[in-house]
Amino acid sequence: MFVDIAKIRLKAGKGGDGAVAFRREKFEPSGGPYGGDGGDGGSIIVEVDEGLKTLMDFKYKRIYKADNGENGRTKKQYGKAGKDLVLKVPPGTIIKDSETGGVIIDFKDKDEKFVIAKGGRGGKGNAKFATSTRQAPKFAESGERGEEKEVIFELKLLADVGLVGFPNVGKSTLLSIMSAAKPKIANYHFTTLKPNLGVVRVGEGKSFVMADIPGLIEGAHEGAGLGHEFLRHIERTRLIVHVIDASGIEGRNPLKDFYKINEELKNYNPKLAEKPQIIVANKKDIESWSEGYKILEEGLAKKGYKIFPISAATKDGIDMLKYGIWEELSKLEADYETFDDPVEFKRIEEKEDIVVKLEDGKFIVEGDLIEKLVYSTNFDDLDSLRYFQNVLVKKGVVEELKNLGIEEEDTVYICGFEFEFFE
Fold first, then answer.
1. What's the rounded Cα separation, in Å, for the pair 67 and 41?
2. Where would I find the H helices in 28-100?
3. pLDDT for position 221
């Protein structure tokens, strides 16, 4: 089975909590702070594997989690970092944000890696909060949450040439005789149920990659037939080779076939219609071919299209086509870009904005940094409480609340908790 799109959920590991511990030695206040830091959470890394050809591994498993970091220990020992989770994908895979559809990363190079979900940082142990005036802190920092996101993995084949055309026009046969590819071939519609890739050798040091895209039909861009599932694979190709059954043996007009297929490409994405295209008039071995070839010449040659007469069955004209494709490719720059929009990609540590607002008569303070501070604070400990208050002052929260008109004993809602305001 060929799988070229998958939606999955990713959850990086949470950082371990810092430890609250004290050593038991003479002349040390409360034994002296001795708690170590928590370990960092594991990240989720996506890596290109040239041996893979599909996204099959992601068809049945849709949720991936990296390991959490261990909590800190006594004796200032750090917790063990969570193990990273590595997901392998074939070259040509695009990762998109599931909400916006924007491209986060486009994998075009072998062995390329990208951290798609970063693990949370481990929290500091109480030993890190000791100062000359706070010699025995009874609080530690909690670990950060790891990044969570839902993404779409989408495979768009990296090929120089894309074979397009109606079903049963000879695309698979053409690929098989021009390369070492072994696609399934039979004389019925939709033999090809997945894109096939083949390397076509032209000469010493000269070769190109050709992709056989499953046959298109009218309405493919709207979901009809099989073609709509594979139109995305044409996007990366530098050159479109349009295979047409010029014999008209199935009762179709070859010129109308040309325009129908191009209309489907245009409706899927107008930029596909701008790609360079050459025409292959196949089935030269059939008697009615001459009439169809004449129709194509009269209708397309004058518009600048190169038309190659061939018979995939007898291999007549194959060498001429091979060199003709190479000549066209030599004029075009290698460009595997797609037509997708990029998305701004931000890491979790960049989200340190603090929101202070007055809403429906309530003073509200929100933000990732403040939430972490709340969960790291031991409100039964005076030192921990002072640290909490000092951070609010340093980050400008108190000043902003004053600007909004807060008064003594007013209630402040901080990340779901209620506090009374006192200066």
1. 6
2. 57-60
3. 43
Question: Could you tell me how far CA 66 lies from the centroid of its own chain?
Answer: 18
CATH code for 350-420?
3.30.300.350
CATH superfamily ID and name for 161-329: P-loop containing nucleotide triphosphate hydrolases (3.40.50.300)
Burial profile 205-214: b = 16 or more Cβ within 10 angstroms, e = fewer: eeebbbbbbb
What does the pLDDT average to over 332-361? 71
> Is 190 a residue whose pLDDT tops 60?
no
Give the Cα-Cα-Cα angle 289, 295, 298 (nearest 5 degrees). Answer: 135
Known binding-site residue numbers: 165-172, 190-194, 212-215, 282-285, 311-313
Q: Where are the domains of the chain?
A: 5-155, 161-329, 350-420
Residue type, 405: G
Per the annotation, where are the binding residues for Mg(2+)?
172, 192
Residue 90 β-bridge partners: none
Binding site for GTP: which residues? 165-172, 190-194, 212-215, 282-285, 311-313
Predicted TM-score (pTM) of this structure: 0.70
DSSP three-state, residue 272: helix
Say what the pLDDT of residue 289 is.
Answer: 95
3-state secondary structure of 368: helix
Which residue has better confidence, 40 or 346?
40
Name the CA radius of gyration of the chain, rounded: 32
Q: What is the CATH number of domain 5-155?
A: 2.70.210.12
